[in-house]
Structures are given as structure tokens and as C-alpha cells.
Amino acid sequence: MDATTTAIQLRPEALAPRFRSSRLPTLPWRDPHSVPPEQLAGFIASLKEACAKNPDNADLRTCLGIAYAMNYEVYPSMDALEEARRIEPDNFFAQLKYSELLFRLRIIDRAEQETIAALNLAGNNWEMSLARKQLSEVRQLRRKGMTRPRWTKSLKAPAIGFLFLLVGISWMYMVWK
């Protein structure tokens, strides 16, 4: 090889995007059904310990939230993802996974807002495509009408009606006895 061909060759590390050293660790997120519950409990325990040692690491909290979600523990998952968002408000993956959890819980209005926030945090085309795909799924679910019912009306009138019904039935029972 002469000097001109070696000078224009690119090194693979020059093409790779620069990530922070604390990016998401390699854990079995691909297929949640292939991870035994005991192994998942071990991952959760090790992630809790890592979060205790590194309280300012949003990526570890994001992984903990994902692990809790895989273990069907909704509230700890939501707490971990909210904590990750609080620690690092500009963390794309924490925002996206939080909005995905809301989407899976069928809290469509909040999921749409949080996914739009994740879309605004996207730093490259791949992240933007992830957020756009999720946003289209959220909006498709909204169009299909697959949202959770909202409890915007007061239950005062039905409760009072039910109370009168119970009193009436009790009174009729006592009179006829």
C-alpha cells in the first residue's frame, strides 16, 4: 500500500457515533418472554444496587424502569423512569420509555404528549424514527378508540340513588317481615 491509500482509509471508530460511557448496559431487552423470572429478579437487584452506587445516572434508572416493566411491576417502573427524567431532562431514552409505558397502560393523552417531548429530544435520525413510529402507533390507537375511559363525571348522583335503593329495599324487607 502506498501512502495515499492509507491516508484516506477511515477507521471504524471514526464512523461510530460518540456515546457517553454510561449508556444503557447490555441486558436481555429484546424478548421479555425469553428471560426467566429468577434471572430478571437478579437483573433488577443488580440494577437497584448500581442505582444506589450511581444516584445521578439516568441511564441506569431507565434500565431499571425497563426491567420493572418486563416484570409487570408498573408503579416501580414508572417511578424509576420519572426519576431518570428528573435526573436528566434531556435524556431521549428515558423520555421515550416513559411515554411507551404510558402507551402500554393506555393513557393515550399523556403518552402522546410525552412521545412528542421525546421526538423533540431526538438527537439523530434513528432516535427520530423510533419516536415517530411510536407517535404514529399512539395516534392510530386514538383513532381506533382504544383509550381508557375518563372519569370526568361525578359519581355523587348514582351513589345517592344507590343509597336510596338500599334504604328502600331494607324498609320493604322490615315492613313485610
List strands and helices in order, with pairings.
Blueprint: H1 3-8, H2 12-15, H3 37-53, H4 58-70, H5 74-87, H6 92-104, H7 108-121, H8 125-144, H9 156-176
Helix pairs in contact: 3-4, 4-5, 4-6, 5-6, 6-7, 6-8, 7-8
Estimate the strand proportion. under 5%
N- to C-terminal distance: 109 Å
Mean pLDDT: 81
- Tally of DSSP helical segments: 9
For this structure, the quaternary state is single chain
What level of helicity do the residues show?
A: 55-70%
CA radius of gyration is: 25 Å
Q: Can you tell me the CATH class?
A: Mainly Alpha
CATH superfamily annotation: Tetratricopeptide repeat domain
Uncertain regions spanning at least 5 consecutive residues: 1-22
CATH-derived architecture: Alpha Horseshoe
- Global structural class: mainly alpha
Number of domains: 1
SSE succession: HHHHHHHHH
Q: Main beta sheet, described? A: none
What is the CATH topology classification name? Answer: Serine Threonine Protein Phosphatase 5, Tetratricopeptide repeat
Principal-axis shape: elongated
Would you write up a description of this structure?
- The structure is a single chain.
- The protein has 177 residues and is mainly α.
- It has a single domain (20-149), classed as Serine Threonine Protein Phosphatase 5, Tetratricopeptide repeat (Alpha Horseshoe).
- It has helices at residues 3-8, 12-15, 37-53, 58-70, 74-87, 92-104, 108-121, 125-144, 156-176.
- Helix 3 (37-53) packs antiparallel against helix 4 and helix 5 runs antiparallel to helix 6.
- The relative contact order is 0.07.
Structural features:
177 residues, mainly alpha, Serine Threonine Protein Phosphatase 5, Tetratricopeptide repeat, elongated, disordered N terminus
